Amino acid sequence: MGDLLSRIEVTKLARELDVPETDLLFLAGSSQAELRELRQITSTALFARNEDRVRLLAALSRILPVPMTAKIAELALGPMLSARVAGVLDPREATRLASHLNAGFLASLAPALDPSRVEPIIRGLPDQLVVEVGRLLLKQGEHLTLSRFVSVVDINIAMSVVAGANGRDLLQVALYCDEPAALDSIAQRIPDAMLADIIKAASDDNAYDAAVSLLTSLSQETCARLVGQIDAVPEHAREELIAAVAEHDVWPTVLPALHLVDQDVLKAMVNVPITMDAALLDRVVGHARELDLAPVLVQLVLAMDDDHLDVLRDSTVLRSAELQDWLLSTAGVGTRLMVPVLEALGLR
Question: 3-state DSSP call for residue 142?
């Protein structure tokens, strides 16, 4: 999973520096934490480089009438410099100024804004203006920009913006979001149909890595709801998603959520060609043991069709007496079901 998270950080850093992502691919071997720290240092350095001139412009803006300052910002300063000035203005002054700017101009300067510096300004703007700017950014495909403001705007405003999004938009915004808690708050309010659109978008765009990244950012309950939409896509798409989960080994994130998933969904998830692999099944069993998730393991075994159960006969992990003792002592009501299954497979 680390390689995927590092690639995401490289994309964010490229945006910060306004350079092609390919120029920074040499950094892809660094850890996510290292790249995030570098991005934060870069952001601070870029702001400090012209801070004196920016503060002078901010001081001049206090002398002129607000409508005139707004017009100068639009016609003379442009989006980049206006964004820098906004970062040093008093929030009340900046809010009054922003209220005189049109939504299109605010959307054009949003990519250059530092959310941590302008949060008080955003919270002071009229809700409808913030929603309008958010929808413009969505229309322009500014998913990375939107992701940076997920934790800054009020949840109700975020939901108003999301209402105009499709599955592809949501998947991309989630991919770049730095705040899992804020992302999960939005996902909790999204209807199942929209979650299904996210799964479909991952399938249509072959963006399974992005879907896996989203799964790791969600609470168990929301993760279960998203996984619950997996039968909205054909078998080949389900298989690719499971392949991505296996490749990045995020079973520790996915397995705890599966106790909330309907058994029919588990059948659709488990019974795909890629899981006809004893080594893969052993990894899943091993993770279930480490996480003490015997009931989930029972659910998965009972969801398997005959062909997959045949593969399970070759499991080395399930043959362990210690693991079977753990399974049968902690599986709860599943114990009476598992004993005959293990015996029928010749594992007990």
Answer: coil
Name every residue whose Cβ is closer than 8 Å to that of residue 84 and which is 6 or more positions away in sequence.
47, 50, 54, 112
Q: Tokens 């995020």 identify what position?
A: 250
**Per residue in 132-163, pLDDT tens?**
999 999 999 999 999 999 988 999 999 999 98
The encoded tokens of residue 54 equal 């920016």
Decide if 249 is inside a domain: no
203 falls within a domain: no
Q: Which domain holds residue 310?
A: 276-348
Q: Compute the C-alpha angle 106/108/112, nearest 5°.
A: 95
Judge whether 168 lies within some domain: no
What confidence score (pLDDT) does residue 62 get? 66
Q: How many CB atoms lie within 10 A of CB 311?
A: 15
The count of structural domains within the chain is 1
- Given a cut of 50, the residues of the chain with pLDDT beneath it are none
End-to-end CA distance of the chain: 35
- Residue 114, sorted as left (phi over 0), alpha (psi -120 to 50) or beta, turns out to be beta
- Sign of the torsion formed by the C-alpha atoms of 28, 29, 33 and 35: negative
Please name the residues in contact with 141: beta carbons below 8 A apart, sequence gap of 6 or more. none
Q: Does a structural domain hold residue 245? A: no
